[in-house]
Protein: Fur family transcriptional regulator, ferric uptake regulator
Organism: Nonomuraea jiangxiensis
Amino acid sequence: MTTRRDAVHDTLRKSEGFRSAQDVYAEMRLHGAKIGLTTVYRALQALADGGKVDVLRTDDGESVYRACATDAHHHHLVCRRCGHTVEVAGPAVERWAEMVGSEHGFTEITHTVEVFGTCSSCSMPARIG
Amino acid sequence: MTTRRDAVHDTLRKSEGFRSAQDVYAEMRLHGAKIGLTTVYRALQALADGGKVDVLRTDDGESVYRACATDAHHHHLVCRRCGHTVEVAGPAVERWAEMVGSEHGFTEITHTVEVFGTCSSCSMPARIG
DNA sequence: CGCCAAAATGAAAATGATTGTCAAAATCCC
DNA sequence: GGGATTTTGACAATCATTTTCATTTTGGCG
């Protein structure tokens, strides 16, 4: 059934930013869930295929997942320090990508856009400590 | 010295689209070059660090490299069929990313933008064969 | 030229995420 | 209940990339 898959989805919902499959697995085990790593991977893939979660690749090639608030196409603004993520819609970017593509005779345009930065909390000078 | 690194760079220049480290290695060995896989990886990284080549990740997590025509910041329009790559400047996207970031209080904005599509040659109905 | 130190090289082992395998367990259909 | 089907998960296998480490090359210097 989808019991395990839902459990994975729930774990993801409770997380603030993007989490790797290994993270999700570790987290679930911490909370006493009886689940295997293989199943977590499968659940995550199924969820991603069904558009239930978003996937992106970190710089070191790890896939990270996040349960997103909306089904609509959107991008992410991710804090490179704490992982805090904001979903952003970017009609301007969509149009730009389409335009750039068709200008060069390309069709079936898709694009990947991710924005990274340091969020306000993290960019505050660390006065404490 | 930089002999090997230059050889790697040259191999990349001769390639049309993005190539993986393994590709470059195989290609060089084909042409009789005496070089190790480790060295190819190191050369590619050094080149990338120095901004001499561009890197991006394929969907299956492989790093691919390309010797780019310009040093300036730019993005790529890549044919998902044949790998043919066009370099595109996107001032609009740069501004958009900055704006989105600062709107949410993020600083030190960076972004990744890649556009994929099917180029005109590849989208022609395959009449032959 | 010979010699030492630092950097470069590469073969092989290590790493680490992800995927495949396959038998056991859960679930479904009747 | 009983058998077919799907799901699960421990473990092995994959595969790109990194590390390790001993050897080679290079550069400076007398």
Notes: Chain A has five helices and six strands. Residues 1-69 of chain A form a domain with the Arc Repressor Mutant, subunit A fold (CATH 1.10.10.10). Helices of chain A lie at 3-13, 21-30, 37-49, 91-103, 120-123. The longest helix of chain A spans residues 37-49.
